[in-house]
Amino acid sequence: MASSLEENLECPVCREIFKDPVSLSCGHSVCKDCLKRCWKEKEKLCPVCRRRNSKDHFTNFALKKLCEAFIKERGEQQQDEKFEEALKPFKRKLQHFEQVKEKFEQTAKHVRVQAQRTETQIKEQFKKLHQFLEDEEEARMAALRLEERQKSRGIKEKIEALSREMQALSETIKATEEQMRAEEASSLLNYKAAVERIQDHPLPEDPKLASGALIDEAKHLGNLAFNIWHKMKDMVSYTPLTLDPNTANQSLSLSGDLTSVIEGEVKKLPDNPERFISSGKFVQSSEGFDSGTHSWDVQVGDGVGWRLGVFAESARSDIWKGSWVLAWIGGTYSARSGSSTDLDLKKKPQKIRVTLDWDRGKVSFSDPDTNTLIHTFTHKFTEKMFPFFNTWCNKHPLKILPVKVCVTVEQSS
Question: Quick one: which of 66, 214, 261, 277 has the most CB atoms within 10 Å?
Fold first, then answer.
């Protein structure tokens, strides 16, 4: 519609909107300046139909007002378009911010879920510890009460035996005194006989408190906290690594104690910078190492496909540019660091031990059940290395195995 109107308002000579339009006797209209140029060079012919004009031309005020209104409207429209064009980056930025805000809100919701889940697990762990301490306290109090009853019964028996001895002595004394009063006190013979009867009656030994009659406080209180803590190690486990759920690909599921991973349903998780999303079904350890020797055992079982290894911190965006990996893919074992090398294993291991010797620049993989070395990489490490795990099996998880906890008491020098 606007295009058709614009065509009707165009000067047939300059092909622009009329400026001071004039109308000729033939009925055609042109710009005043365009008409002057045409008539200056040629006869007074209409530039459109080439007819001679017998009358003077006149200004077409109606057409002029219409053109001015059209030019004004078009100018305003162009201004609006420029304004809209200028606002486009801001609108795009606002739209992007709205998307980011939505992600942030989802992240805040996820943080609340994480906090609730973590709080529940912490409470469960402390509940177990509290129950252990309560049971331990009850057992130790029961042992104390049992010893108290035993020691009290022993002392009571001693007291009862002593009472019987005292009664017997009292009766002997009383009988002798009565006999002496009944006989002739002046009779020396009777006196001697009475003395002999007393001397013939043996005196009981002095009662003594037996050794161990008291409560063995040292047994109950000595190193009490240490002994409880030492006993507590049997109910806890320690794994050398902990999986970081904030790095897990959305298709992986981690156990509650963060020691095993398996492929599961795709979950809606925050797109945080640490998370492996497009790079693969990876999850890394929360711990990284930049010195020393570190080792961890992983139960791989009969999983259909997995990768284990370490990667350099700088290779997070493209893990294959800085990683040292042992893989089980399509029935073939391979070692990969840049290029891939197939391995010929005589026995399918159920566990894999990964050992990182950062200082010597070695990463080795072995079978801990047979103590068989599988493969060793050598490289000069210059940055922090992170263990990582990759699986696409939904039946057999990769599980970091606990290590034996030992308590050693050393004499201070």
Answer: 261
CA distances to 260, 281, 312, 368 from 388, in Å: 12, 10, 10, 19
Contact 334, 305 (CB under 8 A): no
Q: In 3D, which of 85, 53, 70 has the Cα closest to residue 17?
A: 70
Q: Which two tokens stand for residue 67?
A: 């053109």
Using the structure block, give the residue that is written with the tokens 């162009």: 78
The whole-angstrom separation of Cα 324 and Cα 204 is: 88
C-alpha to C-alpha distance for 357 and 294, rounded to whole angstroms: 7
Share of the chain above pLDDT 70, in %: 93
d(CA 171, CA 165): 10
| Backbone φ, ψ for residue 387 (5° rounding) | -65, 145
- d(CA 26, CA 35) in angstroms, rounded, equals 14
Res. 346: pLDDT tops 50 = yes
- pLDDT number for residue 1: 43
Do residues 254 and 286 make contact, with C-beta atoms less than 8 angstroms apart? no
pTM: 0.71
What sign for the dihedral angle of Cα 367, 295, 301, 304?
A: negative
Q: Check: CATH 2.40.40.20 for 245-400?
A: no
The string over 199-235, giving b where at least 16 C-beta atoms fall within 10 Å of a residue's C-beta and e elsewhere, is eeeeeeeeeeeeeeeeeeeeeeeeeeeeeeeeeeeee
Q: Where are the domains of the chain?
A: 2-59, 122-235, 245-400
Greatest distance between any 2 Cα atoms in the chain: 198
Two tokens, residue 119: 């709080």
Q: Which CATH class is domain 2-59?
A: alpha beta
**Residues 34, 74: contact at Cβ < 8 Å?**
no
pLDDT in tens, 160-192: 988 988 898 888 888 777 777 766 555 555 666
**C-alpha span between 296 and 241 (Å, rounded):** 7
Residue 355 CA to residue 351 CA, distance in Å, equals 13
Residue labelled with tokens 């013979």: 189
Please enumerate in sequence order all residues whose Cβ is within 8 A of that of 336, keeping only pairs 6 or more positions apart, or say none.
320, 323, 324, 325, 327
